[in-house]
Amino acid sequence: MLPIVSITLFLPLLGALLVMALRKAPAPLVHGIGIATSGLTLIGALWMWSRGVNETGFAQLEELAWMPSIGAAYRVGVDGISLPLVLLSAVLFFLSFIYSAKVKERPHAYVVLMLLLETAAIGTFTALDAILFYVFFEVSLVSMYFMIAGWGHEDRQRAALMFFIYTLLGSLPLLLAILGLYLGSEPHTFDMRVWIDNPPLEGGAAMLALIAMLFTFAVKTPVFPFHTWLPAAHVQAPAAGSVILAGVMLKFGTYGLVRFALQMTPDAFRDAGIVVLVFGVVAALYGAFAALAQSDLKRLIALTSVNHMGYVVVGVAIAALAVDPAVRATA
Predict the structure, then answer these.
(1) What pLDDT score does 323 carry?
(2) What is the model's pLDDT at position 324?
(3) In the beta sheet, which residues pair with residue 191?
(4) Is residue 135 situated within a structural domain?
(5) Predicted TM-score (pTM) of this structure
(6) What pLDDT score does 21 carry?
(7) What domain range includes position 68?
(8) How far is residue 307's CA from residue 255's CA, in Å, rounded to a whole number?
(9) Helix axes 130-151 and 229-236, enclosed angle (nearest 10)
(10) How far apart are CA 245 and CA 143, in angstroms?
């Protein structure tokens, strides 16, 4: 069977390599490669959608041995949570490439970064190996940093640096949580499916891992009071960068809440569900009222994104509180 997930995932990377090879190509050709590559990626995402998912578990699985000695491998696939996000990412990147065709300043670097960011986004949503997930998660950060710093507006350097420091430091607790989940699994593995089917941590260890994950994804979502990097990044980013930031990258946080926190530490999340619920409500209210005071459209969109993500966090917290351990044990 054709490895459509991997093809869709790495098409933008191949496009980026092609643009890098054509260093003297004119800007229209470079943008044309970006649009064509993103269009093919969208076709791949639509193909994945047409193949559907299983009612339970993951579908369209692709696996290749990578580092068997430590239980790491190239593992990708989709389920009902990740597949819509892959399609959303492909649509928004395609539209962003069309809009960006007018970019004249360093078009080669711009298109390369956008294509790398697309691979990172799709990889974040399709990775089923924790190391692979973390790599894509961080590559997206680096790509967006250079997008803001290179093609943003007047205060782009400060906004890019704030974005980078916040999200880089925010990612470190997730790395510690991943190591904890790895050490808690028997045999040791980075296979996220194993961690979901049989959560490797319990008690205090699970709560510590949950706190680490909640911190990372609270920064990435973001929720109040970890949101202060977003308005500046949103306002200073180029138009296409703002679209990807709000439409794709903010979803990394809530996706991580579901994929890691909710599915891998369900008991701890249930115990902490009320606290997470309160954070979600505060974020939703703060984002709404702060947005009412804005006159700058992009800043308003940034704060309404905080509001919208607050609603999502509330939904995830309610799902955690509603989990019946007896039902999960027999599932």
Answers:
(1) 66
(2) 56
(3) 129
(4) no
(5) 0.91
(6) 93
(7) 1-128
(8) 16
(9) 50
(10) 11
Residue 225, both tokens: 């009071």
- Report DSSP letters for 240-258, one per residue: HHHHHIIIIIHHHHHHHII
323 contacts: CB under 8 Å, gap ≥ 6: 266, 269, 270
How far, in Å, CA of 238 to CA of 132, rounded?
Answer: 28
- Number of compact structural domains in the chain: 2
Mean pLDDT of the chain: 90
pLDDT score, position 330? 36
The answer on 160 and 106 residing in a single domain is no
Return the closest-CA partner of residue 134 out of 37, 43, 212, 227: 212
Block residue for tokens 């209210």? 285
Residue 331: pLDDT over 70: no
139 token code pair: 């590559």
Pair (115, 208) in one structural domain = no
Same domain, 268 and 166: yes
In a domain, 140, yes or no: no
The H-assigned helical ranges of the chain are 4-21, 27-51, 82-99, 107-126, 130-151, 156-184, 192-197, 203-220, 229-236, 239-244, 250-256, 263-264, 266-271, 273-292, 297-322, 325-330
Could you tell me if residue 147 is inside a domain?
no
| Residues 108, 161 within the same domain | no
Q: Give the whole-angstrom CA distance, residue 46 versus residue 52.
A: 10
Structure tokens at 113: 């970064």
Asked if residue 177 belongs to a domain, the reply is: yes
Instruction: Flag whether pLDDT at 267 surpasses 60.
Output: yes
